[in-house]
Design goal:
The protein is mostly helical and about 130 residues long. The chain has a domain at about 80-105. The protein has five helices and no strands. The chain has helices spanning about 25, 30-45, 50-75, 80-105, 110-130. The longest helix has 29 residues, at about 80-105. It is rod-shaped, with a radius of gyration of 41 Å. It comes from Phrynosoma platyrhinos (Desert horned lizard).
Length: about 130
């Protein structure tokens, strides 16, 4: 590629091209803002002025990634883990049923408890006579 003629220093009549001034960068407001951003970057502070929509979209994206990872982890579970989880759920259900029965017995009126005791004693005495 050939070099342009104006690079030669020997011709003083030519006007040398100059870099154009950017009006945005030359404004005092922009300089102050840029200085503040550089200082925050050095301190490790990130600007927290994100729009609400951008925050919501980032949160959704993050939740979606977490959900995908959980689904992948569940797909990778072995047969043993699946069987153990089923047994654990069955045990929890049985425990809940026992608690419900116990609460019902505790909350029952006194005459119901006595009636149940009488039935047991009569059954026990009849079994003793049959033996």
């Amino acid at each position: 590629m050939a070099e342009p003629d104006y690079i030669d220093e020997d011709n003083p009549e030519l006007i040398r091209p100059q870099k154009l001034i950017n009006p945005v960068k030359s404004s005092r407001n922009h300089q102050d803002l840029h200085r503040e951003l550089r200082m925050n970057q050095k301190r490790g502070l990130a600007p927290q002025n994100k729009p609400e929509l951008q925050k919501v979209m980032e949160r959704r994206k993050r939740d979606q990634v977490i959900k995908q990872k959980e689904e992948e982890a569940q797909k990778k579970k072995s047969d043993l883990e699946i069987e153990l989880l089923k047994r654990q759920q069955k045990l929890e259900q049985l425990e809940l049923e026992k608690q419900k029965i116990q609460e019902e017995q505790e909350n029952a009126p006194e005459f119901v408890k006595v009636k149940g005791n009488l039935r047991r004693t009569t059954q026990d005495s009849s079994e003793a006579q049959n033996s």
